[in-house]
Amino acid sequence: MNKAKLRKKYKALRLELSEEKIEELSLEIANQLLNLPVWEKEFYHLFLSIAEQKEIDTENILHILQGKDKNVVLSKTNVKDHKLEHFLLTDTSIIKKNNWNIPEPEGGIPIPPKQIDVVFVPLLAFDEHGHRIGYGKGFYDNFLSECKPEVIKIGLSFFEAETPFKEIFSSDIPLDFCVTPNKIYSFKN
Q1: Half-sphere exposure for 138 (CA within 13 Å, toward CB)
Q2: 185 assigned to a ligand binding site
Q3: Where exactly are the structural domains of the chain?
Q4: Contacts of 86 (CB under 8 A, 6+ apart)
Q5: pLDDT computed for residue 138 by the predictor
Q6: Is 132 part of any known ligand binding site?
Q7: In this structure, are strands 177-179 and 184-186 parallel, antiparallel, or unpaired?
Q8: Centroid of chain to Cα 172
Q9: Do the annotations mark residue 14 as ligand-binding?
Q10: Which positions bind substrate (predicted)?
C-alpha cells in the first residue's frame, strides 16, 4: 500500500474511535512510555493533540513530564516555510488553536531544536523499521533534521506496525521507538 492509501486507511480507523476509546488508549500509551529509558533527559518536545483529527490525547504525557519536573517544549507552525518554531511551556504560556485546530503557544521563550533531547512524534502509521507516515507536509521531518543526531524520536500510535513501507525518501527520518497501547517497538540498533 502506498503512503496516500495508508494515510487514508489510518485517518478512517481513527475516525471510528469514540472519545472514550481515545481516552483509554491514550492513557495506555502514556503508561507504556514510563517503561522507556528516556527519563533522565532534560528537554522534551511534545505535540498537543488535534482533537478534531482524533489524535492521541497527550495530556497524560504532559502530566508525566511536569510530574518529573522536565522542560516541555511545544511548537508553533510556520506554514509558509513548512517549519516548526519551538517554545518552552511555562506557567504563563498562552495556548490557542490555529486555523487547522492545532493547539499552539502564542510565543514565549524560544528553544533551538539542537537543545531538545526527546521528541514525541505524531503519526498516522509506522512500519516495522521505524519509518512513519504523517500528514504529508514534512513539518516533523524538517524539524527532526534540525535536531542533534542523538535526539530520541518516539512515535505514538493507537495501532500496531505495518509491514515495511516501499516508499522511503532520503528526507524521511526514522523513529527510535514507537509506543502503542500494547507494545513498545524499538528501532535502535
Answers
A1: 12
A2: no
A3: 3-186
A4: 45, 73, 74, 75, 76, 110, 111, 112, 113, 116
A5: 81
A6: yes
A7: antiparallel
A8: 15
A9: no
A10: 50, 55
pLDDT at 168 (0 to 100): 83
Distances (CA, A) of 9 to 5, 20, 53: 6, 21, 13
Q: Is 6 labeled as ligand-binding?
A: yes
130 is in an annotated binding site: no
According to DSSP, the β-strands at 125-126 and 118-121 are unpaired
Q: Phi first, then psi: give them for residue 158, nearest 5 degrees.
A: -70, -25
What the block records as the C-alpha cell of 151 is 535526539
2-36 burial, b at 16+ Cβ within 10 Å, e below that, comes to ebeebbebbeeebeeeeeeebeebbebbbebbeee
Q: Letter for the amino acid at 53?
A: Q
Cα gap 88→73, rounded to integer Å: 5
For residue 60, the number of C-alpha atoms closer than 13 Å in the C-beta half-sphere is 16
Mean pLDDT split into 10-residue runs, the chain, 189 residues:
89 95 98 97 96 93 97 91 92 91 92 98 95 86 94 97 86 93 90
- 138 labelled binding-site residue: yes
pLDDT of residue 189: 61
Return the C-alpha cell found at 121. 512524534
177 is in an annotated binding site: no
